[in-house]
Write a structure and sequence with these properties.
alpha/beta; Rossmann fold; ten-stranded mixed β-sheet; about 40% helix; elongated; Universal_stress_UspA
């Protein structure tokens, strides 16, 4: 979690994500890159050269070629000013944390995926339920696409976190053999928040069994967890059980591993991750199984 990408539409929710990203970067010694995706005219088919060359944190497209490009230049100037304002704010919120900014021109989802690769990001922190130009990204199909396709963890933030101190982490699973692929990601989370308690959660439609407890203990041993608790909760659905338990233990973070493949445990279905990411109160971290 050293190189953190924060997509922003300048909404309140994206600002909450920015604040959390700064706190994570400060704690882990990382850096933050702010990203705004500019959906220009014909952005779905155009490439950067159509706007006068590559667009990044320091370059602007030229205005040769018509009213659309003039509009793009003006919009780019306004966007850059707003990004620079956020960078200035970061100096007071998290002194010493390096903050850069960038602009992508194109489809929102594609722009974010390209930016992950371009900046070598290892974490995306984004606001959920945003408003404005990126609303469809934050709450619609682009969110689902990012969770499915991003090759790095995605942290969604829905509410302002005055102080993002992670003391309680909820990790839902059935803790069978398939869950082994989630260990590496969980260990990275534990390394980032070494003082947090990891709540290993199994959501059932009945009472907890001895076999479930044994699976949880065996998983904790394989993952070399030190500060953990095993728990189970009965609920009508996996996502509802996760949300209820997160409130019950006052969770600061919910960690949901996922995989797009079919045939895996219901815990790793992307639909579960998407539902929890956009509904659970605390920030939710999703990542792909190894």
């Amino acid at each position: 979690m050293k190189s953190i990408l924060v997509p922003t539409d300048f909404s309140a929710e994206s600002h909450y994500a920015f604040e959390v990203a700064l706190q994570v970067a400060k704690q882990t010694g990382g850096s933050v890159t702010l990203l705004h995706v500019l959906e220009a005219p014909e952005a779905s088919t155009a490439n950067f050269s159509a706007y006068g060359g590559p667009v990044n944190g320091n370059e602007l497209p030229n205005s040769n070629g018509g009213i659309d490009q003039i509009f793009i230049v003006k919009l780019m100037e306004v966007t850059k000013r707003r990004l620079h304002t956020l960078r200035a704010e970061a100096e007071s919120l998290a002194p010493g944390v390096p903050v850069e900014d960038g602009v992508e021109v194109g489809r929102i989802g594609d722009g974010i995926l390209k930016a992950i690769e371009r900046h070598g990001s290892d974490l995306v922190v984004m606001g959920a339920q945003g408003h404005g130009a990126m609303e469809n990204f934050f709450v619609g199909s682009n969110t689902e696409r990012l969770i499915r396709l991003a090759n790095v963890p995605v942290l969604t933030v829905k509410h302002q976190q005055a102080q993002f101190e992670v003391r309680n982490i909820v990790f839902p699973s059935d803790f069978t053999e398939e869950a082994t692929g989630a260990i590496a990601g969980l260990q990275q989370v534990q390394a980032a928040f070494p003082n947090a308690t990891v709540h290993l959660l199994h959501v059932t439609d009945g009472a907890e069994t001895q076999a479930t407890q044994q699976h949880e203990q065996a998983f904790a041993q394989r993952a070399q967890l030190i500060n953990f608790q095993t728990s189970s909760i009965s609920a009508s659905s996996t996502s509802a059980g996760i949300e209820h338990f997160a409130k019950q233990v006052n969770a600061d973070l919910v960690v949901v591993p996922t995989h797009a493949r079919s045939g895996l445990s219901r815990y790793f279905n992307t639909s579960i991750a998407e539902t929890v990411a956009t509904h659970a109160f605390p920030p939710v971290l999703t990542y792909h199984l190894a």
